[in-house]
Design brief:
alpha+beta, 5-stranded mixed sheet, about 20% strand, globular
Length: about 100
């Protein structure tokens, strides 16, 4: 299983515990955030290209922010999304 963040230049293999935001930042990938990962601003939205079924559904706070910002059904807040260790995910953003 792998957690991969796809940028325009290459795929980045993410590893470690925590949210997708924390894992991306640890790998040196910039992720926008105005609320420091509290799930309020919606700027850290990522698109799940593969493996969304392995994630838990958004909590009520995340769901509210996603709706407010017009996010698609394939998008999640990286600060609120903590993938299971065995997840097989491919993610991206619009600015990588």
């Amino acid at each position: 299983m792998a957690l991969v963040a796809r940028s325009r230049r290459r795929d980045h293999f993410l590893d470690g515990p925590g949210t997708l935001l924390a894992q991306c930042l640890a790998a040196g990938l910039p992720v926008a955030s105005a609320c420091s990962g509290r799930g309020a601003c919606g700027r850290c939205v990522i698109t799940i290209l593969h493996g969304a079924e392995s994630l838990e559904s958004p909590n009520s706070k995340e769901a509210e922010v996603l709706v407010r910002n017009g996010a698609g059904s394939d998008q999640r807040l990286s600060c609120q999304c903590e993938p299971p260790a065995a997840a097989d995910l491919l993610i991206t953003t619009g600015y990588w």
